[in-house]
Amino acid sequence: MEQDTHYMTREFLENKIVQLTDEVALMTKFREDLIQASNKNHDKLTNLQNNLKTWTREQLDNDSITHEQALELAEIGDFTITQCYDVTIAVEHTFTVEIEAGDDIDDVLTSIDFTADSYHTTLDNTDYTVLEVNYEKCD
Q1: What is the structure's pLDDT at 111?
Q2: 29: phi > 0 → left, psi -120 to 50 → alpha, else beta; which?
Q3: Which residues have C-beta within 8 Å of that of residue 12, sequence separation ≥ 6?
C-alpha cells in the first residue's frame, strides 16, 4: 500500500506557512477595520445622544415640551433628564475626638479634612447644624 506523503515535504510546509501568514494578516486587517467602524458608530451614537439630551433639556426649560414628553425622549435616547445646581452649604459639626495624653488638640483639629463625596453620603455619630444654604441654577 502506497502512502500519501505530499503533506510532509518541505516545499508543501513552506507554502502552507506563507498561506497561513497571509490569512492571519488579512484577519488582522479585517479586525482593525471592524474596530475602527465600531468606534466611529459609537462616536456617532454618543454625539446623537448628547444632542438629543441638550435639545430636550432646552425644550423643557422653554416649556415647549412637557416633563412626560422629555422623559419619553430620555428613554428613547438612553439618557437621564437632570437639573444642575451649584450649591454652597455651611455646616457646623459637633463630634468627639479622642487623642493620646500629651498630644496637642490644635494639631489634631487642623489635620481633620471634611469632605462629602455625594449627597447620598451619611455622616454617622455626629450632630450638625446647617448654618447657611445658597444655591443657583447652572447655565
Answers
A1: 74
A2: alpha
A3: 6
Burial class of 56 by CB neighbour count within 10 A (0 to 12, 13 to 18, 19+): buried
Residue ranges covered by each domain of the chain: 10-77, 85-137
Burial 6-15 (b: 16+ CB within 10 A, else e): eeeeeeeeee
Cell numbers at 63, concatenated: 416649556
83-130 pLDDT, tens per residue? Answer: 777 777 777 777 777 888 888 887 877 776 666 655 555 555 455 566
Is pTM, for the whole model, over 0.70?
no
Q: How far apart are CA 105 and CA 120, in angstroms?
A: 31
Radius of gyration of the chain, Cα coordinates, nearest whole angstrom: 33
Taking the CB of residue 19, how many other CB atoms lie within 10 A of it? 10
